[in-house]
Write a structure and sequence with these properties.
By secondary structure, this protein is α/β, with parallel strands linked by helices. The relative contact order is 0.09. The two termini are about 50 Å apart. The protein has a six-stranded mixed sheet with strand order 7-8-6-5-9-10, sandwiched between helices. It has a six-stranded mixed sheet with strand order 22-21-20-23-24-25. A four-stranded parallel sheet has the order 2-1-3-4, sandwiched between helices. Bound molecules: phosphoric acid mono(formamide)ester. Phosphoric acid mono(formamide)ester (CP) binds near residues 56, 57 and 306.
């Protein structure tokens, strides 16, 4: 009998979610039939909550008892054998021999998946770290649908802690699946993580669009209905349509009363840094004045609860405050879910499984690790089998890995061939080769050269390189970019040069130095790190005096700077980071080398040199700040398929892949 786990909202099909809703309708009705009421007779649920809970735990326990089953539990996991050092894998295995279903909440991202891998019975995720809380999402969608009689085409504004709010992560995926438009009002520093954005884009074609006109806050303020704190959160929207359609729709939305729901959450202080905990004066709040605003007369207010002070008690007495109903629906929804999971175990009907990209497990004892420090693969590796979906289409055209436990994405640096013990840095031209190695179980992925060399891997030798720009030409190109930039910029005080880490930052610094030479005044320079998973993607580089406020893009003319543009995906990711952190006045691109072939419609405004793209040739910008070479140069070199290189490795060194070290 195959067991059925619920770890993420993606584990349920749209049809199953609808089935749960219909079943919840009948289970929630007073006249639940005797057979439905007894569908868990003789079954035992174990609740393992490593974090506090009122609603999720008690509504699950109530649901099981209402279905005729019984519950075993550990009142406090600190009094379980985990306090003696028992692994989560062992706990899951043991408890699954005492119960028919496990409901687990844990503070590590991905811990519930890890426990499900070791449990013999179905496991339900009751919230894992900042990752997901799928059963809360079922309650949220059900409540919204009951109130508004539909989901498709609704507009929902989500406010608060987008970064750590696991309820929000599951919810935005589900809203996207059901065709709901989403306005994101993230508290400062608590924006929706990049990995969630990437997934919304890749799986549901939802992308983040800044609000086009005076934003929601201004619109609300102008009608004297302030419900947000003075420092406004960032206002962005998730839309599927093409740009002009989106702009028209947003324009309409902010000028017409079209908000079906506000979904607000508390700040997840248990997961926040000390700094963020102290700075919560900026946290969005819904208060009494919201209730008086005509345009929100049909806007319901939702909250997964518990609340702290982000939602006024005055809303409790208003028909639009539906969060206690939302909590109450937890029982019929979780009863329906339990019934669905148990019925699925007895059913021979094959399940439609979500299509994944090919997955990677290392053949080596040392390998790449998930970039998320709260991922269970890092906090308790012995209970996991680190596995990554390999995405060949991520930002920067790099080899992007997505952790199967916590969903975080990061860029793989070095690839190795496990049979010949050779390694090189990844390049998009190697995609077919890497796919083959992956299929054959011969792919190794490393975070560093040191890691590869500790396993006795040797690099592919370098092939010939041609210099196409020398030091003088690079200096002249940067000077010319700086001149053009100044010519086109009316208000250089609002200018911000944002270099994409690493080489983009050095080029941004050089452009800034040129501007200082010409204008006698420095331009602010910042760094943008598109692979930073902790949410700290923007950093100020200059001026850097102690006490300067964090870098802000709001109302600035941002010049995004990088060394080479190939596919344009790096730039696309950088733009999404910028728009997440505030609304700039405008964004322009300055690129030293433009290769003119890209998959996204982004054109650079300032270009040092155009070099036509080629699948077989790579351009590399070498800067004295990062290279051992003393002088700057731009080189071009050809790529040879490394499979051929392996075959030829003892005969023709010149035909080897150029290792990009
Ligand atoms: N909404 C929610 O998960 O509440 P609890 O933390 O009380 O379970």
């Amino acid at each position: 009998m195959t067991k059925r786990d619920l770890i993420t909202i993606a584990d349920l099909t749209d049809q199953e979610i609808e089935e749960i809703f219909s079943l919840a309708d009948s289970l929630g009705a007073a006249n639940t039939s005797a057979s439905e009421g007894k569908s868990c007779l003789g079954k035992i649920m174990a609740t393992l909550f490593y974090e506090p809970s009122t609603r999720t735990r008690l509504s699950f326990e109530s649901s099981m008892q209402r279905l005729g089953g019984s519950v075993i539990s550990c009142p406090d996991m600190n009094s379980s054998s985990s306090a003696k050092g028992e692994s989560i894998a062992d706990t899951a295995r043991v408890v699954s021999s005492y119960a028919d279903v496990l409901v687990i909440r844990h503070h590590w991202d991905g811990a519930v998946r890890a426990m499900a891998e070791h449990a013999e019975v179905p496991v339900i995720n009751a919230g894992d770290g900042s990752h997901e809380h799928p059963t809360q999402t079922l309650c949220d969608l059900y409540t919204l649908k009951r109130e508004k009689k539909k989901l498709k085409g609704l507009t929902v504004a989500i406010c608060g802690d987008m970064k750590h709010g696991r309820t929000i992560h599951s919810l935005v995926y589900a809203l996207a699946r059901f065709g709901v438009h989403v306005i994101i009002l993230a508290a400062k520093g608590l924006e929706l993580p990049q990995y969630v954005m990437e997934r919304l884009d890749a799986e549901f074609h939802y992308s983040l669009t800044p609000m086009p006109v005076d934003d929601l806050h201004t619109a609300v303020q102008s009608t004297d209905a302030v419900y947000l704190t003075p420092t406004q959160p960032h206002q962005l929207a998730l839309f599927t349509q093409a740009d002009s359609v989106v702009q028209n729709r947003l324009q309409k939305m902010v000028s017409e009363p079209k908000f079906d729901a506000f979904y607000i959450t508390r700040q997840q202080k248990e997961r926040s840094t000390q700094e963020a905990k102290q700075g919560n004066g900026d946290y969005p709040r819904i208060g009494e004045r919201f209730l008086k605003e005509r345009r929100f007369k049909d806007t319901v207010v939702m909250h997964p609860l518990p609340r702290v002070d982000e939602l006024s008690r005055a809303v409790d007495l208003d028909r639009r405050g539906i969060y206690f109903k939302q909590a109450a629906y937890g029982v019929p929804i979780r009863m329906a879910l339990l019934k669905l999971l148990f019925d699925a175990m007895g059913s021979a009907k094959p399940r439609k499984v979500r299509q994944r990209s090919p997955c990677y497990e290392s053949p080596e004892p040392i390998d790449t690790q998930c970039a998320n420090s709260n991922c269970v693969t890092r906090t308790e590796r012995s209970s996991t089998h680190p596995t990554f979906e390999v995405l060949f289409t991520g930002p920067g055209g790099g080899l992007i890995l997505r952790c199967l436990y916590c969903d975080h994405q990061f860029k793989a640096q070095f690839i190795g061939h496990a049979t010949s013990n050779r390694y090189c840095s990844y390049d998009t031209a190697l995609e077919e080769t890497v796919r083959k190695w992956l299929k054959d179980g011969e792919l190794a992925i490393f975070d560093s050269i040191k890691q590869a060399e500790e396993l006795d891997y040797e690099p592919y030798k370098s092939g010939p390189q041609r210099s196409i720009m020398n030091e003088n030409e690079i200096r002249e190109a940067i000077q010319q970019m700086a001149e053009q930039l100044l010519e086109n910029t009316k208000d250089s005080d609002r200018l911000l040069l944002l270099g994409i880490r690493t080489k983009g930052v050095f080029i941004a610094n050089r452009i800034s130095a040129q501007i200082q030479n010409q204008r006698g005044r420095a331009v602010e320079v910042g760094e943008i790190d598109i692979y930073e998973t902790g949410g700290d993607n923007l950093h100020r580089l200059s001026p850097s005096e102690i006490g300067t406020p964090p870098l802000s893009v709001k109302d600035r003319t941002v010049i995004l700077v990088d060394d080479v543009i190939n596919s344009g995906r790096t730039v696309k990711s950088a733009l999404s980071v910028i728009f997440k952190s505030g609304r700039p006045r405008s964004v322009h691109l300055a690129i030293l080398i433009d290769r003119g072939h890209r998959e996204v419609p982004v054109r650079p405004n300032y270009v040092g040199k155009h070099i036509p793209s080629s699948e077989r040739e790579r351009v590399r910008v070498k800067l004295r700040e990062v290279e051992r070479d003393e002088r700057d140069k731009v080189v071009i070199y050809s790529l040879i398929n490394p499979i051929q290189a392996i075959n030829d490795q003892h005969s023709t060194p010149a035909s080897m892949l150029t290792a990009n070290r």
